[in-house]
Structures are given as structure tokens and as C-alpha cells.
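# nightly structure sweep
# worker-07 picked up a monomer target from the shared queue
# config: single-sequence mode, recycle default, output format = C-alpha cells
# input follows
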Amino acid sequence: MSNRSFKLGWLPARWLEHTCLIILVLIPALFVVAAEDPPSPKGANSGGSKANVERLIKQLGDPSFTVRENATQSLAELGILAQQGLKRALVNPDLEIRMRAHRVLLKSLQSEFAAKIAAFISDVDGKEEHDLPGWTQFRKAIGSDRNARILFAEMLRRESAILEAFDTGKNLEPVLSQRLTELRPGNRIGQVNGPQKAHPATLATMLFVAAESKLATNTTLFSQFYSLLNYSATKQAIQGSQHNDMIMKTLSQLVLKETSKTSHYYPIMLTLNYDMKTTGLTLGRRLLKSRPTSFSTTQYAAIAVARFGDQTDISLLAPYLTNVSVCHTWSNPQIQPGVIKTQVRDVILALLIHMTKQDHKDYGFELLRTTPTTLFHTYTCGFTKEEKREAAQAKWKTWYEKNKPK
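# output follows
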């Protein structure tokens, strides 16, 4: 990553953050994605001279309202040529001058940024260099066609702070953590109108940054991130986006990232929740081959393979039929008094019967309840009596000996 600052035209993002209150967030209506030529600065060379700009800025504080208005209009027409003087005017002792300078500068930067983004989106052939944070990595990971550029431009408009932190390698974790807190489902702290809803471009930014950085080692951060992704409103935002294919591509890259130190339960559940067939099958197979010690990882990796794979994957699940560890305990007095136990091998057997298209009732699965995401509610894969469990295992062994591939 480079150590440069992201520049809107000639202005670093940190200056914008401290003097213009992050104009990219405050003025969404002025974001332009249409492919247009950047506007040319107005005003003759003499009009844009330092002396003339300083004269006009001084008139911003004139006692006459008409003089103040005319000076404001003239500075606005100068555009880029007046920006340096306007920046100096932001610390002028005169409040009227400061306020008007801020307003004119803000409009100038908006116009400049809109032109810069329009030129960026139009440059599908990549003939120009665009000094945008994270673009080099995004282009390699996702693509650089017009749709990719439109998505990236929206990411930049909404989450410039995250992209700049990613690009510079500075303060990425605290910036991302704060944003996750703001978007956390149910969070109302500091939210006048309730919790914020994650926009698809915001989610795309977070997924891209997480997949392309070393943040996967931060287990706390990733737990928050996966919780947000598994939230129903987040899923709806992603699946309803016109950029769904690209966002799902970044999600797949994150899920399959092998450097993750977080519980594998989270990524495998994402593949199930988002119906990610290829990614879920790849991850499920990888996890089962690694012989995970976690009960939840084993169960859900097996579910992904059973749901997205075929009978050629039976050999991956079969070794876990010897795992007698209890993964669920529950009770229902209407079924029987006491505790009902579900072992890992019970879940595996239920999945194998599903994969071989047999009837679970023939194996004594009288408690089984189905669900689209995980095929079954895993706790209902248990048995009320140990004899029934052993009988089911024996029946499978007999069936498999007769029907396994030669």
C-alpha cells in the first residue's frame, strides 16, 4: 500500500475531514456517476490572480449585503482558481468571511470531486491514472469495467475514511470498528432516527478491505463483522443490490481466506445463509479434510458438503460416524422426561441419509425437523434411547456395505 494521501483534485482527504466535515458524506445528492467531461475552471487568468481572489474574499465581509453576495458569486465562478485563497479564509477573524468562504469552497470541491469521479467511471480502458485509495487493489481483485467503477465510486463516496485507512495502512482497525459499531443491529447510541442500515456500497467496502488486508487475525472485529453479515437486513441489502455479483465475489474471497483466525463457524454459516454453493462446498470440504476439533465447525462444514455436494462426498462425512461427542442437549417433557442428547455422529448420519435420498423414518429419526438453511435443526438429529441410536448406525453400515461405490 502506498503512504500517500487520497486527493480530491489537489486537496488531501484529511484536510477535507477537518475543514469541510467530510463533504463526501454530507452532500450525497451531488455525487455524479454520469460519464461527462470534467468542467473547466471559470474565470480569466486575471480574475483568478491572488490579488483579485484576496480582494473578493475581503468583500465577503463587506457591510453591504449586495457587495457580499456579488463577491460570493464571483468566487464561486472562479472555482478551482479560488480554492487556495478560500482555504486561507477559513481561519479569517471575520465570522461572515469564514462562513461564506466555507460555503463557496464546499461547492467548489463538490464540483471538482463530481468531475473527477465522472472521468474515473468513463475511463473504462484505463488510459488515465486515478489517485483513488484502494483502487489498484480493487481493480485486481474485482475488475475495472464500468460497473466495477460505478460500485467503487459509490464505495468511495460513502466510505472514504475506510478506504484511505486501508490505502495508507494507518488506523484501519479503529476506523472499521467504529463503523461496525454504528451499523450494529439494535444499536441506538447516538442514533437520532434509530440504527443505521448498511448500504450495499458500505458492505462492499468492508468486505473488500477485510479480504485484502490482514484484519482476519482480529477475532473480535471479525465476530462483529460476521454478525452484521448474518443479519437479515444486511442479506437483503446485498441480494437486492445491482452490484450483487461483485459484492458476493468479495464475500467469497473473504470466506475462503485461509489466514482467518476466527471460528470457522462464522464463514461456513455465511455460505449457508447466502446460498453460496461453490464457495460453501469448497470451504466445507477443506474443513472436513482438516478434521476440526470444534463440534460446531464439524457439523456445519458437513451440512455445507451435504447441501451443496453430491454422493461423491460421502467419504468425507463417513469418518465422523465414530464421533460420539455430545453436541446438543435439550429437553421436552412431552416427548420424554429428562435430557435428550444429540451426538456429532447423529448429525452426520442424518446428513448421509439425506445425501443418499433415503427415508429418515426408516432409521428411527422421530424428532427430526427440517429447515432450508441447514437442512435440519441439528439438535433434532438426536435419539431418545441409546438402543435406537445404535440401531440406526448399524442399519447405515449394512446399507453402505451393499451400496457404496466400487
